[in-house]
UniProtKB/TrEMBL annotation:
Ranges of compositional bias, category Basic and acidic residues: 312-329
Protein name stated in the entry: DUF6908 domain-containing protein
Organism the protein comes from: Phormidesmis priestleyi
Residues annotated as domain DUF6908: 133-245
UniProt xrefs under Pfam families: DUF6908
Source organism phylogeny: Bacteria, Bacillati, Cyanobacteriota, Cyanophyceae, Leptolyngbyales
UniProt-annotated stretches for the region Disordered: 1-22, 98-118, 264-335
Residue intervals passing through the bilayer: none
Amino acid sequence: FRLSAEPSELKEPAIPSAEPAPLGDLQEWKYSHATVSVEGESNRINVLFDEWPSPEFSDALKQNGFKAERATGPWSAAYSPEQLKIATHVAQSYSTSISSPQDVAREKPTPKNHGKVTAVQPATRYLQRTERKVAEFLHEAGLAEAVMGEFHIKIENPPFIPLTVESHAVGEGVTQLYLTHYIELNGDLAHDGEMVFNISPDGALRLEETAVKNPFTGGESRIYGGGDRTFANTFARNIVSQGFAKAAKAEMAQDVQQPMKLPEISSPVDTQPEPVTEPEMPTLGKISPEMPTIEDPEQKTADVVTDQPSVPKDKPQVTEQPSVRESEKTVPASQLIQRTIEEHDPELHKALIVSDNTVQASVQNLRDWYVSVRTQIKAEFQSPEQKRDLEARLGAISLQGQQAQVGSAQITPAQAEQMNADLTWLNERYSPESVTIGELRQWYRVNVAIDEGKHTHRIEQLATTLKSSGKEVIEIPGLEYKKMKTDLHNLQVKIGLAAAPNVQKIWNAAESQRQIQIDAAGQKSLPGKNYKILAEGDKLILTNQRTAAQLTLENGQIVENTLTQTDADQLQRFASHSVQVPPQTAGVER
């Protein structure tokens, strides 16, 4: 069965790596779970899926002129080289998304690189516009390899807001990529839009979060689990059209970036002091008092904490601003940083200037500490006061790095304790957790119910890896384990909110119809075949007598919930029935 389709003009085609084959009687490209064919006689392209595809793949074909009566196909369109590229790309992407490692190994319709992936996949490999544009930017800017590891660069591109590109390893070969516009507000840095991507071990980008300034609260509005695609599409398109790739090349040419060492947690620092002389705070340059600025804390980590010797005296560290009038007084940047620290954290400021009791920390300690505090600022919800404290701490670490001797620095015992606490936080946050195939299956169902299945592709990858390994458990990164727990929690909240009013309705109906039982101890209850409700003071406790799942309400508020969606659906029916039935038959007999 074939449906006809007119050739479509493609505005922005998703082009695969496969090259179109010459027309003949029948040309076929067989993948593990899909087949692409070209019929020479009818001059048509057909795509046939082995299983029901997700909307991502069928919509990609539909939007590019392919038509079919069933989701599995065959999807048909008039032949053109561009249409063939789209068809083979969709078939290959679909097969890869649901294939086991053995299936992928058998797929050889196009050349594959089986070596270690060292760069983000090219733009032609993506169906989603955001990922495609960001991949285009990274490759054009020459950053596609650098962001596979620890990396940081600030791209100046007047008159546009500077763009910070930053990446951090988060375990299991996964790297997180941040693209952020930072602006200065009242002397503080704040982001003016951010996208966060996961980069898989095979170099595939996937949008995870977006954040924008909240015009009502002054804080940020962050969307997890796939982000805001409309905002992300605009952000990604602007990065490409505004020439940030060219600006990045110029930036790299002036100051070649050295990727940071992976933040392996350093050994705890001994907090016992040893006397040292107080280091002299360096003057970093002259700055106009009309616009007092300091070196951006977002600067490259290699600049912030460096283990290289000091710059020779005959080579100036910072160039003075060209239009400073003689009458203007100059302020050292280090003093501005110290003033900020003194204002927001007097104890930390005291620890910086009093060097009677200090301990030695390696530059690697400082690097790890910087990464931990930077991650806390970005990854955790903080009150304005907490955020200012963290930013002040980041500035202090920056100063320590600038003053560090080759390979080591002197810090106070209080700083050493704070550093060890921050490093412990980072270690615990990113330490992997073990999960079973049953937990992955449960997470898959929950993610579909609570988050529109935005994380199911990754869950499938984990399940496939676990099954192919023959083991009972698989270790997943701490962030993904946290995401799993968050999804489970959010589902329980959703179920509880749906069930609570119906439990109250059933109880109220039973009271009005005198169905409540009171035992010798004065305990009120509404027993039933499958469910039972108890009243204890201001609490109502509903229990599934078969599974022991419970919902506890206190003054109408949810205290605890372990019910399932099935329980919530049944309670909905019971509540409707309790209102309708005559008094003598009402109750939770089900």
